[in-house]
Amino acid sequence: MDGTLKENDLSGVVAADKAHVWHHLVSHKGFETTDPKIIVEGKGLRVWDQNGKEHLDAVSGAVWTVNVGYGRTRIADAIRDQLVQLNYFAGAMGSIPGARFAERLIEKMPGLSRVYYCNSGSEANEKAFKMVRQIAHKRYGGKKHKILYRDRDYHGTTIGCLSAGGQQERNAQYGPFAPGFVEVPHCLEYRAADQGWGDLSGEAYGQRAADAIEEVILREGPDTVGALCLEPVTAGGGVITPPQGYWERVQEICRKYDILLHIDEVVCGVGRTGNWFGYQNYGVKPDMVTMAKGVASGYAAIACLVTTDEVFDLFKTDADDPMDYFRDISTFGGCTAGPAAALENMAIIEEEGLLENTTAMGERLQENLRALAEKHAVIGDVRGAGLFCGAELVADRASKEPVSEALVKAVTGDCMAQGVIIGATNRSVPGYNNTLCFAPPLIASADDIDEITGAVDAALTRVFG
User: Fold this and answer.
1) Closest CA to 324 of 312, 307, 308
2) Which residues, 6+ apart, have CB-to-CB distance to 298 below 8 Å?
3) What cofactor does this chain's UniProt record say it requires (predicted)?
């Protein structure tokens, strides 16, 4: 796009949008006086709106999805060719791209062996929850059915996923929720004092945060708990990286009580943290892994639930039993565009060395943010893994009092006006929607990173002085 597009060239589109489109996560009252932003085109890290304004996208499609960037012709061509050959067949049967991508995916996930296709992260997590419940009935008389989830983690939009959601504001007005979901404490070391754990840090805090999970298991009864569902890095709850020793202890606890470890990689999966999957940064061996956003970088809808053979084998023990299989279907899990796109997406990541780039540019991003913290006292903490970073804003470093969500919104709005799109926790955790979020595509260059943090620098100066 050459920047010559005028607003009136798309006036009919804007009018149709305002009249008929129900946008996600937006109050439409404001559209009575202003136009919605319509993204018209993307190339690399850049997108253009209906007015021809260029933006650097530092959040990969606003929801951490477009890992390999915009305008990838080879992915679009692969989708087109596959759709002409075979666009869809129900998942009770196989397809060529489905088999090939499953094989390639499992190569990246030692210890796991089976891929169940569906079409969104929420749906993938629902499938995992259903497997846990069915296993409870098959092996434990229905008793070992409870699913533990973590405060500030997020697993999706359905009622089942919200039942396992640790973000109270996202859950508000949608109850009552499904029974059998039990919360465990978050693992944000920066907020240890808020948990009543004093000034613990490092491995001591990691041990304490993990032991808190065991305390919940013992309270509920280990014979009632079937699974623990966690994000490897808490995403929308504040980009929370796990403390030292946390994951090792968590896995030990799960093995001790025969609890399935379900890791939600919807955000972190397929390169975001510098490894193929976030859990691989911490030496964890999960029983179930769910993924979606970056699997095909948003070029087609695809999500996967991946399990070990041990989990898979629990559903094929008796061929004569009509109830002895996973009795579930995902209609659009049978679409072939998703795995076709995912194959090309994975090839691009490998051929262009994007895991290595993610690690290098992630380090630069955190270095730049820490430099900003030396300049702006409002930055209380910087954390992240790969190209997934957060900067928590506080009114006072000593007390760690969070700034208001309105001020965080002012910072993101200022960056948007500069032509840089960044994210922030919003309407999620009461009182703690105070973290700026950064997740640019994995193709980001050093200049891109510097442009992102330069915009943040200017915005913080204008908003906070």
Assistant:
1) 312
2) 61, 65, 66
3) pyridoxal 5'-phosphate
User: What residues have CB less than 8 Å from 234, skipping those under 6 apart?
Assistant: 150, 152, 153, 186, 187, 188, 240
DSSP letter at 448? H
Residues in the chain, total: 465
The span from the CA of 74 to the CA of 175, in Å, is 44
Alpha-carbon span 422 to 110, nearest angstrom: 34
Q: How far is CA 369 from CA 54, 167, 257, 320, in A?
A: 23, 26, 41, 60
Q: What is the per-residue pLDDT across 449-458, written as a single tens digit (0 to 9) for each?
A: 999 999 999 9
Tokens of 456: 């943040």
pTM (2 d.p.): 0.96
As a whole-number percent, the residues of the chain with pLDDT over 70 amount to 98
Residues of the chain short of pLDDT 70, as ranges, are: 1-8
Residue 129 CA to residue 150 CA, distance in Å, equals: 15
Per the omega criterion (within 30 degrees of 0), is the bond before 176 cis?
A: yes
What domains, with CATH codes, occur in the chain? 5-66+353-464 (3.90.1150.10), 74-351 (3.40.640.10)
What pLDDT was estimated at residue 3?
44
Could you give phi then psi for residue 39, rounded to 5 degrees?
A: -90, 125
Query: From CA 129, how far away is CA 123, in angstroms rounded?
Result: 10
The per-residue pLDDT for 4 is: 46
The answer to whether the CB of 5 falls within 8 A of the CB of 51 is: yes
Average per-residue pLDDT for the chain? 95
According to the model, what pLDDT value does residue 10 have? Answer: 86
Distance set, CA 32 to CA 35, 49, 133, 351 (Å) = 8, 19, 46, 47
Packing angle, helices 354-375 and 337-351, rounded to 10: 70
Beta carbons within 10 angstroms of residue 178's beta carbon:
16
Q: What is the pLDDT of residue 1?
A: 52
If one counts every other C-beta atom within 10 angstroms of the C-beta of residue 2, the result is 6
Q: Which pLDDT score is estimated for 416?
A: 97
Structural contact between residues 149 and 330, judged by C-beta atoms closer than 8 angstroms: no
Q: Are 156 and 119 in contact (CB under 8 A)?
A: no
Cα–Cα distance measured from residue 293 to residue 119, given in angstroms and rounded to the nearest whole number: 10
What pLDDT is recorded for position 132? 98
Q: For residue 200, what pLDDT is reported?
A: 93
Instruction: Classify strands 114-118 and 303-307 as parallel, antiparallel or unpaired.
Output: antiparallel
Is 60 exposed, middle or buried (CB count within 10 Å of its CB: 0-12, 13-18, 19+)? Answer: buried
Burial class (CB in 10 A: 0-12, 13-18, 19+), 383: buried
Q: How far is CA 201 from CA 192, 208, 210, 243, 381, in A?
A: 8, 10, 13, 8, 14
